[in-house]
Design goal:
Chain A contains 19 helices and 24 strands. By secondary structure, chain A is of the alpha/beta class. Chain A is globular. Chain B has one domain: Rossmann fold (3-Layer(aba) Sandwich), CATH 3.40.50.970. Chain B is globular, with a radius of gyration of 21 Å. Classes of the chains: A alpha/beta, B alpha/beta. Strand 18 of chain A pairs parallel with strand 2 of chain B. The complex binds thiamine diphosphate, iron/sulfur cluster (SF4) and magnesium ion.
Chain lengths: 636, 317
């Protein structure tokens, strides 16, 4: 084995040992990286699911290359999973990986460059590249190793393909199961559980395929047992309540079904598409359909047409698609057609970062529209909330005859986490409208003058004939341009948000209810923010956080809450100017999107710390930002 | 269009009630005097009455334009939506409520310009509805701009020295789309033909596309004048499988036997724009209809709860 200079140890697998060092850990973060198509993701998913079943807290994130077919062995082409496993619940992807399995050195290098590995990370790497016939590859290996050895990683070479040859002729396809077996030994996973999940994953294939994968699993397990000198024990507490494991997009799809939705109209766009893949597979069994429209505009139109005709319909998209749906959303607001729009946010503007997380559509969700078009915007913060949000969204959309935009993001969409299995409620699936004839004299916008609420008519109901219009209209839906009619229509549509706001509660506070600094977040950052807040609190700082589910209307009580803290700061995954950047002044600084909103609605001088790293925020970075904010407060 | 038994709301057949023209009259039309849309409205009302369509089970979806005001002047359900977007909304309505009689009403700008993508795809979906394109070959509501169907050289406010391009041919375009199932042309100034065409379109099972040549005395009188003055510039397509309107035979001596089941012939006839051809160019009821292809039987709440429980079992740990 080559001995590399540098701090990291670089070695052939240690001699077999009958007494591996067993380390008890409260948590550990591992990554599995391969070229696309080599199955690192499947390996990671199974590992995550097995860990969840055994009773560990788990958060799994996909590592996705932005291109469909990046060149093999390229640093930007790494595909795989990060899995954070803990003794207790895990709410986010953490900071650094403690252990990495890489199928080649280039994908490893890609993660190294992003500072994804802990300085003392253990790296298990396929070693065939070191002795490849192709000199270019050997050179690449050497130069990668030279870079990697600048850190204190413990690099262990693993003859993955050679070992797999024991079982299969074409080891490239089977390596992921070998790796899974290896990880099962390292983390002392219950092999039976893993074998069962593997069998289920391949249930559509032949018995031989399942057997072969089980055999590869065993080879990996035995190799690790024979060659590694460490094992990790992360204590498990088998869950006391029934749990399920899904990603956020599956939770949205399940939520849609549980909410009684019958039509999902969409146009493919990452990272929203997998909602429709999953629904495409199962929705018809529930009497629902996925309509893949010719574009996002048509998808919105079909959903609105269906809703107008009495169905429960929604449309799902990401930022660029939301932009295209804008005009139709305005029509739904104006015509008071219930509509649920799910926006799985990604990096923008324009095509931006299609596979990466961002929270940059908040202001678009609230305001992108011609004219005044009040709508409800809610943001689930966890995978479980993705499910619940769909039920809430339908209820609000129908009760208030309004548009509800559900903002999730790429982090929730692809993150996998165990959550408490919901108790299904038949009321969620109720038919949307009373189909009786419309009583004489009732008008299509019979607005209650206090609440703006009115009864919804649908075609088929005798006595309800009228023409819904996007033009300004009165209670009869008669087009009218007089000043008072338009003023009143706007008033009534806006009033509904105030009525909804009256039914909301102030958001819960994580930490003490007063202090020096309050962090405010929304959406998928909740776990990372709370972990960072816990860390600063453990250092004795008076910091708390709150997380907003309702962005429009806003939760009540924010002003009073903010008044109890010396400083308020949002943490978001969107762009804001750094206060110290050239030309940036207090006056021209562009802020994080929630910060703008909070300033406007509370008149508090809300600050923000936001970043657009194309990855979920790491608790350590939020932690550092909080420390900075506190020191600025004290020595401005 | 035909009734389909599947529905979210099982309301039964249209009530046997005697509907009169009055039952279909909505607000007072606000089109210019002499506008072709008036006659089209009357023909539509006559169709509703002759076919005795229950007003509450009839939906007119439109876009934005003078033409798209039509639903307001009916007493059915109406959906006056966005410029260019009548077809997706109408598709959503029919897809979820096959029991409703669905009509889409569009202008030429609506259908062939801003909504052109939807037009192509709606043709291919072949959802059972009547799509009326009220083609005045100009933008009326926005006051005289060139439309995709404006004849080359015709001046407008946006192209005052005459439209630069040869016009788009909506019939050829529709006939070029796979799954097209009904394509016809008629005009507002031959009411008997207009009515017969609407009836054929309504009775067609599938997406029935009707281009109605429509006079706009405000902005495009010149375009249609020559047809009105000189009947020899019009040719009727007649066939026992198409439509034949004996009442207008005297007026329009040019008659061509055209079999609407012959797609190649339809394309050839549509391509030649030297005359205004009125009649059914193409009809084929054997094409799949999207709402039937996608039909799934409704499931009771109990069934859905049970299935969802099973689905959660798959994700259970
Ligand atoms: C998105 C959008 N763009 C533009 C308009 C303005 N607009 C209204 S109607 C119309 C064209 C009308 O022409 P046509 O569709 O031929 O209908 P007509 O008035 O001639 O019946 C336009 C451009 C609009 N309402 N919405
Ligand atoms: S502008 Fe033309 S199309 Fe519009 S109402 Fe007047 S005549 Fe009819
Ligand atoms: Mg026009």
């Amino acid at each position: 084995m080559d001995a590399h200079t540098g701090a990291s140890t670089m070695a052939a697998p240690p001699e077999p040992t009958s007494h591996p060092r067993l380390l008890r850990l409260a948590e550990h973060t591992l990554e599995i990286l391969s070229d696309p198509g080599e199955g690192a993701q499947k390996c990671g998913q199974i590992f995550g699911e097995a860990s969840a079943r055994m009773g560990n807290g788990v958060w799994t994130v996909e590592i996705i290359p932005a291109e469909i077919q990046p060149p093999a062995r390229s640093p930007a082409g790494g595909s795989g999973n990060r899995i954070r496993v803990g003794q207790g619940p895990v709410t986010n992807w953490g900071d650094h990986a403690n252990l990495v399995v890489a199928f080649n050195e280039q994908v490893l290098l890609g993660r190294h460059d992003l500072d994804a590995l802990a300085d003392d990370a253990i790296v298990l790497i396929e070693n065939r590249w070191a002795s490849e016939d192709d000199e270019v590859i050997r050179k690449q290996w050497e130069s990668a190793m030279a870079q990697l050895t600048t850190r204190n990683y413990r690099i262990i070479e693993v003859p993955m393909e050679t070992e797999c040859l024991e079982v299969v002729d074409a080891p490239r396809k089977g390596k992921n199961m070998f790796v899974l077996g290896m990880l099962c030994w390292i983390y002392r996973r219950d092999l039976e559980t893993v074998r069962e999940i593997v069998a289920r994953q391949f249930r559509k294939k032949s018995a031989e395929v399942v057997e072969m994968n089980h055999a590869l699993l065993d080879v990996g397990y035995r190799w690790a047992e024979a060659h590694l000198d460490f094992q990790f024990d992360i204590p498990c507490t088998p869950p006391s309540v029934p749990m399920v494991v899904t990603n956020g997009n599956q939770a949205v799809a399940l939520g849609a079904i549980a909410a009684g939705m019958e039509l999902c109209a969409m146009y493919p766009i990452t990272p929203a598409t997998s909602v429709s893949h999953y629904l495409g597979d199962i929705f018809e069994r529930f009497g629902g359909i996925v309509h893949q429209a010719e574009d996002e505009i048509a998808a919105a139109g079909v959903a609105i047409g269906a809703s107008y005709a009495g169905k429960v319909a929604f449309t799902v998209t990401s930022g660029p698609g939301l932009a295209l749906k804008t005009e139709f959303i305005g029509l739904a607001v104006m015509g008071e057609v219930p509509l649920v729009v799910v926006d799985v946010q990604r990096g923008g503007p324009s095509t931006g970062l299609p596979t990466k997380v961002e929270q940059s559509d908040l202001l678009a969700a609230l305001f992108a529209q011609a004219g005044d078009a009040p709508r409800v915007v809610i943001a689930p913060a966890t995978i479980e909330e993705c499910f619940n949000a769909m039920i809430t969204a339908r209820r609000i959309a129908e009760t208030f005859r309004c548009v509800v935009i559900v903002l999730t993001d790429a982090n929730l969409a692809t993150g996998v986490q165990p959550w408490i299995r919901p108790e299904l409620d038949r009321r969620w699936l109720a038919d949307p409208v009373d189909q009786a004839a419309v009583p004489n004299g009732v008008r299509p916008y019979e607005w209650d003058p206090n609440t703006g609420l009115s009864r919804r008519f649908i075609p088929g109901q005798p006595g309800g004939m009228h023409t819904l219009t996007g033009l300004a209209h009165d209670e009869r839906s008669t087009v009218a341009y007089t000043p008072d009619v338009h003023q009143r229509g706007c008033e009534m549509r806006s009033r509904k948000l105030a009525v909804l706001q009256n039914a909301l509660k102030p958001p819960p506070v994580h930490g003490d209810s007063d202090g020096d600094l309050l962090i405010v977040g929304w959406g998928s950052t909740k776990g990372a923010i709370e972990e960072a807040v816990d860390r600063v609190r453990a250092e004795g700082q008076r910091v708390s956080s709150t997380h907003l589910t309702f962005l429009s209307p806003m939760h009540p009580g924010l002003r009073e809450l903010f008044a109890r803290f010396g400083k308020v700061m949002t943490v978001e995954i969107n762009y804001s100017d750094a206060p110290t950047a050239p030309y940036i002044t207090q006056e021209n600084r562009r802020l994080g999107q929630l910060a703008w909103l909070l300033r406007a609605s509370t008149l508090v001088d809300v600050d923000c710390w936001t970043k657009v790293p194309g990855e979920p925020l790491r608790p350590a970075r939020i932690h550092a930002a909080i420390r900075d904010a506190l020191s600025h407060e004290r020595n401005p | 269009m035909s009734d389909c038994d599947c529905s979210l709301l099982v309301l039964g057949e249209d009530e046997a009630q005697d509907y009169t023209m009055q039952d279909y009259a909505g607000a007072m039309p606000r089109w210019c005097p002499g506008c072709g849309d008036h006659g089209i409205l009357t023909s539509v009302q006559r169709l509703l009455e002759e076919e005795q369509l229950a007003p509450e089970r009839t939906v007119f979806v439109s876009g934005i334009g003078c033409s798209s005001r039509l639903p307001h002047y009916l007493k059915t359900y109406g959906f006056h939506g966005l410029h260019g977007r009548a077809l997706p909304v109408a598709t959503g309505v029919k897809l979820s409520r096959p029991d409703l009689h669905v009509f889409a009403v569009m202008g030429d700008g609506d259908c062939c310009s801003i909504g052109a993508g939807h037009w192509m795809h709606a043709t291919r979906y072949n959802v059972d509805m009547v799509a009326l394109m009220l083609d005045n070959e100009i933008y009326g509501l926005t006051k005289n701009q060139t439309s995709p169907t404006t004849p080359q050289g015709h001046p407008s406010n946006t192209q005052p020295r005459g439209s630069y391009l040869p016009p788009l041919n909506p019939l050829s375009a529709t006939l070029g789309i796979s799954n097209a199932s009904f394509v016809a042309q008629t005009s507002d100034w031959v009411p008997a033909h207009l009515y017969a065409t609407l009836r054929a379109a309504y009775r067609h099972r599938g997406f029935a596309f009707v281009r109605i040549l429509q006079r706009c005395p405000q902005y495009s009188t010149k375009i249609f004048d020559s047809f009105l003055r000189d009947p020899s510039r019009t040719e009727l397509l007649i066939h026992e499988r198409g439509i034949d309107v004996p009442e207008v035979a005297d007026l329009y001596p040019n008659r061509r036997r055209h079999d609407p089941s012959d797609l190649d012939a339809a394309r050839a006839v549509a391509q030649d724009t030297s005359m205004a051809r009125l009649g059914v160019f193409y009809q084929n009821e054997s094409h799949p209809r999207y709402e039937e292809t996608r039909h799934v039987p409704p499931h009771s709440v109990d069934e859905r709860l049970e299935l969802l429980t099973a689905e959660f079992d798959r994700h259970a740990i």
